[in-house]
Amino acid sequence: MKKKRKKIFRKEAVFVLIVFLAITSFLFIQKRGEIYKVDSQKKTYLKGDVPTSNEVFATLSKDTLVLVDSADPSSLEAKEQFEQILKDMRMGYQTVDVAAETIPEFSAYQKVVILLSALDLMQERTPDLMAWVADGGNVLFGMTLFQEEILKGIDQDLGVLDSNPNNAVVSSIFIDDTFMIGGGKAYKIDEPFDAARTVSLSDDSKVYAWIDDNSKNPLVWEKDYGSGHFVIDNLGFYDRSVRGIHAASYSLLTDTAVYPVIDGATYYLDDFPAPVPAGNASFIKRDYNMSVSDFYTNVWWPDLLKLHDKYGIKYTGLVIENYEDDTSGKIKRQEDTERFNYFGSSILANDGEIGYHGYNHQPFSLDNVDYGDVYPNYKTWASTEAMAASMTELDRFIKDLFPDIETSVYVPPSNVLSAEGRQMLVSQFPQVKSIASNYFSEDFAYSQEFEIADDGMIEQPRTVSGTIWDDYAKLTAFSELNMHFVNNHFMHPDDALDEDRGAANGWAKMFESFEKDIVWIEESAPDLRKLTGSELAGAVQRYAILTVQQSQNENGLNINLGNFHDEAYLMVRLNNEAKPGNVSGGSLTHLTGNLYLLQAKEAQVTIEMK
């Protein structure tokens, strides 16, 4: 009997010990965050001497002639966008100002992009242009054209049967589903105006985009003329949000168009992990009856992890050590690290990474910057040394928390970064390989292109933000899928507290809206890679240096890639009705219509044509 009791006692003791260890482990994980592994073998960045974007572009042959009019502000707006589009597509060009320069012979070029709203300045050369196209040349009219006598003389050759002197209001753009990724639907214009020429076209004109109303006024079309052909962009506006449409139009000019893209979707979480942000907690109290801190732990972050589980999203969390506004350079270390450990470890355990955001939330600017009423709560730093001291402390703080990781991406608070602050990062913090800021020019914003800057910094602008995308954001996201095959998104935890960012709707509706947009991205571009911030930086690095040469023979389409390293991604458009067959040196994925995504695994790729 005693032996049996002793045996039972031992079983109970073991059971109690197991329960105790389980509770202890749970509390440890809850406090420290999830267990994560670091891949020390991952090759994110290229090593050695990597050229800059400008150095690469200088090597390209200039087979595209771009005609502009410096006296026309709209022409200069179009010039700014098209020159960057061609640079990003790795198409060499020569720009000629018809108001001040002589137009060269068209025969020296393969393509001509005309960024003129009126053709009177090239009146004497219009017959030469038409003869050159009839003989096999290709012309893109990249701007809405004014009605005038020269245009009337060539209208039918451009496919125009009839026109109205009153322009059409472009309220939304419907994209043919075979033309672009994300096509088959309309994209609204947030500030519509009478931007497009009102026309009706001949039956042998092929229309790719039109106004989404009863008129269906054409916005993008092409028309063969002799052995060459014309492409007409009739959008009437020129900014970064529609670059993808202009790039797609340009890709119609030749039988085949091959150009590099990035292929990546990245999701940044600014100010996370960070101390609990200040803000209006009334919406959280209203919907969840809990504190802001508990909301982030029990609702907000678990919801975002659901998106990781369902769609493979990788989050890049951007650390803010404190929200104090001391910019003197005096450092006060953050002692309360429990939230940082918990959320940071969870990010890392769910395929994400940690990036630099700030010791505090004060952008790197000196006293030569006056924020005025735009950022009334921001202060400037006392000196470059003070900025560097804060960055050194942030680096120490992250290393103490997560000693095994490498941190290489910096995101400026509120996307604000001065030239002096940027130079400080480049010269004193070589571990910062990439800056991720803003695609658009806003007040004090550090605006970027996808490129390698002249000092070697990898620039990777964020293109959309928040959980509720407005019409402009949706148009931009669509455009960038087609321009760079990229979706670079950011959001803040305090979006759920800020009425201007949709907080009054409640987090549940904000999350529902966000997931809906993610589903649209997934359905439009299911092959888009999910990347962290550093992985996207590495992808931009490979993209930014790639050059492309293409030729065709009896074997098919031959593509030679300069500055190729381990992999590259390219868009391939086949305009000659040929169908691709076997691919050597890479793999081809159909996107839509005659548009394909090429993953190059070697510097020489051959695509058989059927």
TrEMBL record:
The chain crosses the membrane at residues 12-29. InterPro entries: DUF2194 (IPR018695), Glyco_hydro/deAcase_b/a-brl (IPR011330). It comes from the Bacteria. It holds the Pfam family DUF2194. The keyword Membrane applies. Keywords: Membrane, Transmembrane, Transmembrane helix. GO terms for biological process: carbohydrate metabolic process. This is DUF2194 domain-containing protein. It comes from Streptococcus chenjunshii.
